[in-house]
Specification:
Length: 327
Amino acid sequence: MSNPTQSAPSPTTEALFDRYLLPKVALTIIVAASLLGSWVSTTLVSDSGIVSAVATWAFLVALGTLVGGLLWKHLFVRPADLGTGAREYCAAMYERFDRIASLAVIVTVLAGSVVLWRYVERFGTTVEAASLAMLGLTTVGIVAWTILADRTVESQFRSRAGLLALTFGLLTLLATAIAEVAMRGLEPAGTVVRMLHLLAFAVWIGGAVWNIFVAVPSGQERPRVDVVAAAAEQLERFRWAVRFVIPTIFLTGAYQAVDAIGLNVSVYVTSTIGLAILAKAGFIGVLVVIFKLCPMWRACSPIEGVCDLEELGASRVETDSEVSTDD
């Protein structure tokens, strides 16, 4: 009897891959919007150098990739997947994420050094600056250890080291938000808003990187029913998170814009900073459209069945029937 859970990639899967343009476009837009945001934030504090903007952007993207990726690795992956036919899929995802995390660690250290120097130049060698440096170094240190340690997927999943890395990554992100607000004058409301903005960004950029460069390639190599089910459930959890991420990014971004340059429409359409803010708002609008179109076009994943959980359930029933008939 043939193995019903193992099959070669079908023409449908290949066709879906051709339509997997929307998530990649979404990731490109997220990166572009974050670069605009970094330029605006550095310019508003009279730090208009391109090096500062790019370094801040690279630091936030790398740190967001680590935090969002660890969030997916330990929370979006289902514990049940480790005991099913999707175990190899989870192990492959962890290996791919480790390679991406290695690059993110390097960028975090290099770009973070420039960002930290900005804060030291502005505030001096303070306890706060030292604390931020220690948080960042602890985060990359723990992540580096988890990458180098040779452990099984079961021992990695929600391990003490993994959750500790996620915790310190979140603390580093929050401390960075505080430092960014302090560059213009620390005040409670602006600090909370900036924290929410960066947290939402990390969830989105980390999830997008995981989905495109980790989950999808690993799933395409193993087009089995258990793998498709695991990938579909993970993607559905990410979709649920994005429902909160999109409005959070938009509303917190709008608050920061109004707080920085006010409500005068002419400022937004006549100044470079205003136009950059409007462009970023437009990018978020495009992301909303993409988020709605992906499931409609079944272009959310090139892994066949992932875009429709109900269809996946039906295919499972059919597979079970075939197994019973063959027996």
